[in-house]
Inverse folding.
């Protein structure tokens, strides 16, 4: 009749993008007469922040303020093809496509400014605040706005760009499984602390600590959103959710949220994350994508923590109180394992 | 809650960026907090009709007859759709990338293969009218034996779930009943290991359970085209699927979406668009088809269950010398995306570790349950659960600390991976070290000294070993499942070409690539444009030098430069520290 | 079946709709009045995405008959701002990045507003109880809780 504390950990990596490649993304960028940019995509924002990530990538590459860029998605009449938002591919594939399009648009922008300033385009830089000036001579400058007006009404140039990013599809060897699966991998390690009640079998998540290596955190606030939200989903997956409680017996399926359980705001635990950045050589500014892996290590870490707490291995998900109690009973009682710091 | 360790891998990064790396407010946040963000269902249409489907109550049954006459006469009913109304009533999602055979109807015709499979679609003036009319449809079923367990489904004599794959498994390379991975000689290594540990893991299905259910609204536009407001996760993927099923030129479909109330992989399958569009085509009015929560929960495709057997050969010093995985994806009654997951899983095996002998057999099995589909971590999540619990058991067996054990076996730059590609850009060891430190989890001094950049690829670690291969598990020949190996591939064998690097378009077209924009580029130096009288022109510094390490300044001394725009080295992520 | 009229105030304006007698408030708002802020998440009263205020009380529009709203005041997230000025809760949600997909947000804001309107200084437990009926699948709830507590702290300053 006691509560036992335990810690468990897990380490994972995660492939970024569709397996084997063959998943293209395209982007189109154009500007209005005032030098404000629209990024036309057909990418899907599921909540992960696709619109804002691509906006920041475009603004960085163009060299203009963030307020001068908006992303317009998704309309199949105006946005070019994108494979879709899945497989943690959005930041990597669409980010690269946006860079390609923004590079082209930036190239025309600098050519147009060079013509106005009567210098070489190669000597021009952008200040990220809406100005273009000669490197080392900031007074020789022109605004992006004036450049756009000159381009469209005087010079006859389109300050626009198009981009595609495609990793060509790989074959798979039928006998060895040899393949080119992916070009970038993210990494993570997570420690979970739990408390197990040996009378009810309930597992309470007390806290989590993790380190995630993501290439580059393009927007740290949004990375935090993914990692925290994903960890919650991991907690839900390992301890709460199933539409087939006695799989493979298909009976007792839940029909609403009263029967399909997920942790509520009163069930969440403190979570502390460190982000590491080892840029992917082919990622946009080195970025990889945390959207899926943010839940994965929680599952085994919690399972390992339950073992650490009471000596019960639950190898079938979800870890329900029933399974924990059966395990404790089979062991003749709770068996706390070696404590690992904390 | 979140900090960024800028100190690690610092020499591989240039953090001198303008807006990248900043926690700038999201473009869509104002819309979310004002209720103005438009999801697919947030569009008004005059004359909107509602579609609801009649679903099979049986797990597996032949359809003897369908009588819709009473339903057709029910109040508010405008049109009823049956399988014969669907122009191409057999599809598989990955046919768009030429993978797999068409196996799934939009509306069942002769047989139902899972409880909840759609048979008839009712289109009426209101949802209530459609649901009332549903009850008047009379379908005469002859129930059939069903199979629910993946290993039972693969036994000879099991009920045939899906006639397109008559042995209840997806067929790989037109040769095998599973996808193989073979690297080195696991059988031989198991015989030399100090310990062999074999365990079984099982994950059950789970629901995506987004707060927004699957659905779409399709309506005739003014130009012989149809507009479709969709929650699709792949706009063109769903457009292409609908175009194929409805035998329409793709440019007659105008898909609008991009703002979705949670996807998590459950909105790839194009569950509602084809029938909604068909309804709009046949009635000439807008048609809305949205799953209610009970349908979403019971009949919206879940994450598939997986059964995973992991067998490891372990030495007493903690090295894993062999790993064999046999696993089964429960695809449910139809393929959808499961075929892809098994290959992705194969690419992920044996996890982020260097193991000299690795093999796996991964099956996609059909059972009489709701077809499963992608969900956050597709092909990876369940096998990571199995592998990391297994690692914990292995560490326990050799009495090693779990973190030390991972670091000992972790992969590093230069190590050869089991699918015969060299690992690079690795960082598992650093994640383990940082997490352990943060969690006050004590690890050995030796573990603290390890690095992803050192020790990888040395000697055996960088090589492809000789590998016995086999012809086990040929399609339609279950007796071959236990056949011996047929040949041994020599060390170093690679039979699949490496991926070509994507080529930036500018170079292919021979137009000049945009100047001065490498892959990621520091923000240009921004001394503020001076307000005072312009300085005399100084000679320009050589163009090649990185601008932030400025060449010797021109003659007059420059004032102390204001903070360079974007040239911030972060020790904290945000402008203010948040607790 | 003949339609029947129902009239009520919606976000401060008089509105009217012709409905079927059995229609719930959610269908009436979305399909009858083109008010799309409250969402359909379950239709069963278990997810909270349809949360509105009716005469100041948080209610689930999917479980409320439209006819029961005759003459009452219905409020949704669309009416939270005062013209161009966002409500402190809306500002706090933005500052704390308390939304990802945004689908639960209108209902969540209504539950939060009902809490702060009756309890200007809630504890963390009070906040948790107030939003326990609003499911969020994306954020893990922590930023939402932080946002509501921050708005409560800020409200005191704005009101003064």
């Amino acid at each position: 009749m006691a509560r036992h504390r335990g810690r468990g950990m897990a380490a994972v990596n995660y492939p970024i993008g569709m397996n084997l490649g063959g998943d293209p993304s395209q982007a189109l960028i154009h500007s209005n007469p005032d030098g404000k940019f629209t990024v036309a995509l057909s990418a899907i924002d599921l909540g992960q922040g696709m619109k804002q990530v691509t906006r920041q990538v475009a603004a960085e590459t163009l060299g203009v303020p963030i307020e001068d860029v908006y992303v317009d998605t998704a309309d199949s009449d105006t946005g070019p093809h994108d494979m879709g938002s899945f497989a943690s591919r959005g930041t990597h594939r669409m980010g690269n496509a946006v860079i390609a399009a923004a590079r082209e648009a930036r190239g025309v922008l600098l050519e147009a400014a060079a013509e106005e300033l009567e210098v070489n385009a190669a000597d021009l830089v952008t200040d990220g605040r809406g100005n273009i000036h000669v490197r080392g001579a900031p007074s020789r400058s022109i605004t992006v706005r004036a450049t756009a007006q000159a381009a469209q009404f005087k010079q006859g140039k389109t300050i626009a760009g198009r981009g595609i990013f495609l990793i060509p599809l790989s074959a798979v060897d039928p006998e060895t499984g040899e393949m080119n699966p992916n070009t970038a991998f993210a990494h993570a390690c997570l420690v979970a602390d739990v408390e197990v009640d040996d009378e009810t079998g309930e597992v309470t998540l007390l806290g989590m600590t993790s380190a995630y290596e993501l290439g580059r955190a393009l927007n740290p606030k949004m990375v935090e959103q993914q990692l925290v939200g994903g960890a919650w989903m991991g907690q839900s997956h390992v301890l709460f959710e199933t539409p087939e409680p006695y799989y493979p017996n298909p009976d007792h399926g839940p029909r609403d949220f009263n029967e399909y359980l997920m942790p509520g705001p009163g069930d969440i635990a403190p979570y502390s994350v460190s982000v590491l950045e080892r840029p992917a050589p082919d990622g946009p500014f080195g970025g990889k994508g945390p959207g899926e892996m943010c839940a994965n290590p929680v599952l085994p870490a919690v399972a390992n923590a339950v073992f650490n707490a009471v000596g019960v291995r639950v190898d079938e998900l979800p870890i329900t109180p029933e399974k924990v109690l059966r395990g404790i009973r089979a062991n003749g009682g709770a068996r706390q394992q070696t404590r690992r710091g904390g | 809650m979140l900090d960024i360790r800028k100190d690690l891998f610092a020499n591989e990064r240039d953090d001198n960026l303008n807006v990248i790396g900043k926690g700038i407010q999201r473009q869509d946040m104002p819309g979310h907090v004002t209720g103005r963000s438009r999801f697919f269902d947030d569009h008004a249409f005059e004359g909107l009709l509602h579609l609801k489907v009649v679903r099979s109550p049986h797990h597996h049954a032949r359809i003897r007859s369908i009588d819709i006459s009473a339903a057709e006469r029910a109040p508010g009913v405008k049109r009823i759709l049956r399988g014969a109304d669907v122009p191409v009533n057999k599809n598989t999602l990955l046919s768009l990338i030429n993978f797999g055979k068409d196996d799934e109807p939009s509306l069942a015709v002769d047989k139902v293969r899972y409880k909840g499979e759609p048979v008839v679609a009712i289109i009426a003036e209101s949802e209530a009218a459609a649901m009332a009319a549903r009850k008047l449809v009379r379908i005469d079923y002859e129930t059939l034996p069903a199979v629910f367990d993946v290993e039972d489904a693969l036994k000879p004599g099991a009920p045939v779930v899906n006639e397109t794959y008559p042995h209840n498994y997806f067929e790989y390379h037109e040769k095998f009943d599973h996808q193989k991975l073979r690297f080195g000689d696991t059988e031989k290594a198991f015989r030399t290991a100090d310990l062999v540990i074999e365990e079984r893991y099982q994950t059950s299905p789970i629901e995506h359970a987004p707060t927004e259910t699957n659905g779409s609204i399709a309506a005739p536009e003014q130009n012989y085209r149809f507009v479709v407001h969709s929650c699709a996760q792949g706009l063109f993927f769903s457009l292409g699927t609908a175009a194929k099923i409805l035998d329409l030129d793709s440019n007659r479909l105008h898909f609008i979406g991009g703002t979705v109330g949670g996807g998590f992989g459950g909105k790839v399958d194009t569950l509602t668009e084809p029938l909604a569009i068909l309804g709009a085509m046949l009635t000439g009015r807008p048609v809305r088809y949205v799953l209610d929560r009970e349908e979403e929960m019971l009949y919206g495709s879940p994450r598939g269950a997986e059964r995973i057997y992991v067998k490891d050969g372990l030495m007493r010093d903690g090295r894993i010398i062999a790993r064999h995985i046999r696993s089964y994806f429960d695809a449910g009654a139809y393929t959808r995306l499961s075929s892809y997951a098994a290959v992705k899983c194969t690419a992920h095996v044996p996890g982020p570790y260097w193991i000299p002998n690795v093999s796996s057999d991964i099956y996609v099995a059909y059972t009489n349950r709701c077809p499963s589909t992608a969900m956050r971590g597709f092909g990876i999540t369940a096998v990571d659960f199995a592998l990391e619990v297994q690692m914990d058991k292995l560490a326990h067996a050799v009495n090693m600390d779990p973190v030390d054990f991972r670091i000992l076996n972790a992969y590093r730059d230069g190590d050869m991976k089991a699918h015969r590609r060299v690992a690079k850009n690795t960082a598992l060891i650093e994640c383990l070290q940082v997490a352990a430190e943060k969690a006050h989890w004590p690890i050995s001094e030796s573990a603290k000294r390890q690095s992803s950049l050192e020790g990888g690829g040395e000697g055996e670690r960088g090589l492809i070993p000789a590998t016995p291969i086999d012809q086990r598990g040929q399609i339609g020949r279950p007796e071959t499942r236990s056949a011996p190996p047929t040949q041994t591939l020599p060390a170093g064998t690679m039979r699949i070409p490496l991926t070509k690097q994507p080529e930036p378009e500018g170079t292919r077209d021979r137009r000049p690539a945009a100047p001065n924009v490498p892959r990621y580029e520091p923000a240009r130096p921004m001394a503020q444009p001076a307000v005072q009288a312009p300085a005399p022109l100084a000679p320009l510094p050589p163009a090649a030098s990185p601008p932030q390490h400025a060449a010797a300044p021109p003659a007059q001394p420059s004032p102390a430069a204001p903070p360079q725009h974007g040239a911030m080295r972060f020790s904290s992520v945000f402008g203010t520290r948040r607790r | 079946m003949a339609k029947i009229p129902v009239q009520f105030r919606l976000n401060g304006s008089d509105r009217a709709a012709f409905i079927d007698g059995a229609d719930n408030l959610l269908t009436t708002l979305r399909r009858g009045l083109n008010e799309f802020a409250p969402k359909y998440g379950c239709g069963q009263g278990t997810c909270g995405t349809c949360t509105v205020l009716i005469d100041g009380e948080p209610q689930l529009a999917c479980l409320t008959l439209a006819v029961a709203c005759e003459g009452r005041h219905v409020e949704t997230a669309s009416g939270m701002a005062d013209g161009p000025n966002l409500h402190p809760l809306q500002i706090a949600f933005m500052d704390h990045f308390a939304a990802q997909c945004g689908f639960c947000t209108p209902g969540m804001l209504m539950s939060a507003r009902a809490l702060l309107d009756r309890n200007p200084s809630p504890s963390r437990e009070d906040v948790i109880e107030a939003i326990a009926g609003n499911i969020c699948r994306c954020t893990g709830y922590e930023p939402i809780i932080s946002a509501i507590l921050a708005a409560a702290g800020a409200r005191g300053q704005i009101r003064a």
